[in-house]
Structure formats: structure tokens, C-alpha cells
Amino acid sequence: xxxxxxxxxxxxxxxxxxxxxxxxxxxxxxxxxxxxxxxxxxxxxxxxxxxxxxxxxxxxxxxxxxxxxxxxxxxxxxxxxxxxxxxxxxxxxxxxxxxxxxxxxxxxxxxxxxxxxxxxxxxxxxxxxxxxxxxxxxxxxxxxxxxxxxxxxxxxxxxxxxxxxxxxxxxxxxxxxxxxxxxxxxxxxxxxxxxxxx
Length: 198
Description:
The structure is a single chain. By secondary structure, this protein is an alpha+beta fold. It has six helices and five strands. Strands 3-4-5 form a three-stranded antiparallel sheet. A two-stranded antiparallel ribbon has the order 1-2. It starts with 10 loop residues before the first strand and ends with a helix. The mean pLDDT is 91.
């Protein structure tokens, strides 16, 4: 394959973000120079921090490079352990929810101030939260689900705080409140979107 053949370099684009898949560093540097040249002709330039050549490290590519991950559309793409269909594990270059997206989800969940809604029932809280939770699950749950499980632990903690505020018997008993909510989740696994999605 000719490394300078633009017609054979696949890419994805969203707004002004583009990911190009090159077969070598040489091809990537050549493509970057060509894009810089074209943008300059249009009075534009590449973003100096976001424009990088990234080495997609996995079981087949084991060299060490300065850049071995990148973020795109709320996902971080990097080397991760993956399970084979036939059993066993291998290292793959794949996406999972990014740290930035995780922090934003946690910020939004905390902004609901559920722990101050002691006048609401669990059913009412679920009706408010579930549409948003389902949206996150549908988008970020497509790849590497375990990364999203960690984010939703914050939501579980938010519910524990709500129970401690609502019920006097849990006021100073975080563990007891957590066990109570866990029992409810076992009896009603579809109460919250985070419970039915595994």
C-alpha cells in the first residue's frame, strides 16, 4: 500500500474533530503536513494541543510511544484488557467513557440534590432520574461497561444520603441505609435504570 495515497486513509469526523487511521508514523506525519498546508491556504490552522499522532498500542503493537491514547466524543481510546469470545484475555485498543465525561456526569447527578428531597419517594426519584440515566447508559454503555459502573457508584451513594435524610433510623447509619437500598434493588431491579443494565 502506498503510504502517501490519501484515498486509502479512512477517517471519522464530527464537527471540527477528525480522527484519521494511518498505517505508520511516516504516513501520519505526511498527512498532518498536507492538512496543515491545506488549512493554511484557507486561513486556518490545526489546534496545537489537540492535533497529535497517537500510537494505538495493543497485543500486536507493543512499542512505546509518547502518545498512546486520545479522547473523542466523550470516550477515551487506549489500550485495555479485553475478553476473547473463546475465553481468556488480551490487550486491545478500545474506547471507554472518558475521565472528563465521568466527572461531568457526577457533577450533574450531584446537582440534582436528591439528598435534600426527603419528601419524595423512591418511585418519584426514579421517574425523575431514569430518563437521564438511560441516556447516559445508551451512549456510554456501548463499550467497556465496567468504566460506567464506577461512575454509577456515585449515584448509589447519593441514594444512601437521601435515605439517611428521609428515615430517622438511618440518620447516622450509612452502612445500614446502603443495605436497605441493596435489598430494594434485589426486589425491584427495574426501579432504577442503573439496576436493570448489566
